[in-house]
């Protein structure tokens, strides 16, 4: 969501910095890893940053969720231009649409509430819904199951991170479209297996229509 359909104006980094500093840690040495793993399940990222210390990882995760909610309430959340319209176009064509995220359900809910997007898509999934988050393929498979669909080759996935692309390709999606409105650049998206690179998700309906 963040960086793909929602503006990525440093929300994740700001929330992480606030959360880690509040736990008495120096966030600066950890920020390169945070940037590298954008899009992945946040608790998984924190477990990697605090190996062998599940209690610490959970504490930081809770603090991160709280910081995200605070920042969203402060206005650090807005739709990317054309995102809602693109989703509406896809639904008008009879396609099912799904939000997936590396955020927790609590943070995802805060984003949807802030934007008034409860009814924008058919389904919204977070890592807890699938068992594993990105870069595993589970979110795609869970979306298919929940929506009663049976062919992953009919899936078009869009995202702004390498983890998004890895998830889509590992699941077998027909389209893994990287968008240049978020965390990773074209080279990183293509290295992770992007089949297409778009300026923004607003271009997704035209791409899907061609395939």
TrEMBL record:
Pfam families, per database record: Hydrolase
State the organism named in the record.
Streptomyces pathocidini
UniProt-recorded name of the protein: Phosphonatase-like hydrolase
| Classification via Gene3D superfamilies | HAD superfamily/HAD-like
Q: Which InterPro entries does the entry link to?
A: HAD-like_hydrolase_sf, HAD-like_sf, HAD_sf, PhnX-like
């Amino acid at each position: 969501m963040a960086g793909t359909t929602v503006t990525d104006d440093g929300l994740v980094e700001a929330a992480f910095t606030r959360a880690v500093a509040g736990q008495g840690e120096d966030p600066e040495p950890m920020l390169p890893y945070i940037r590298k793993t954008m899009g992945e399940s946040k608790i998984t990222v924190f477990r990697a940053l605090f190996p062998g210390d599940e209690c610490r990882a959970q504490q930081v995760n809770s603090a991160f969720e709280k910081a995200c909610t605070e920042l969203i309430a402060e206005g650090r959340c807005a739709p990317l231009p054309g995102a809602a319209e693109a989703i509406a176009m896809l639904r008008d064509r009879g396609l099912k649409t799904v939000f997936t995220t590396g955020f927790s359900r609590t943070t995802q809910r805060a984003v949807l509430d802030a934007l008034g997007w409860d009814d924008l898509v058919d389904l919204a999934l977070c890592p807890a819904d699938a068992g594993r988050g990105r870069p595993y393929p589970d979110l795609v498979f869970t979306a298919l199951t929940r929506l009663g669909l049976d062919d992953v080759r009919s899936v078009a996935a869009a995202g702004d991170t390498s983890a998004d692309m890895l998830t889509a390709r590992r699941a077998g999606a027909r389209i893994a479209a990287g968008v240049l409105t978020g965390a990773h650049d074209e080279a990183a998206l293509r290295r992770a297996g992007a089949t297409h690179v778009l300026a923004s998700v607003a271009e997704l309906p035209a791409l899907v229509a061609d395939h």
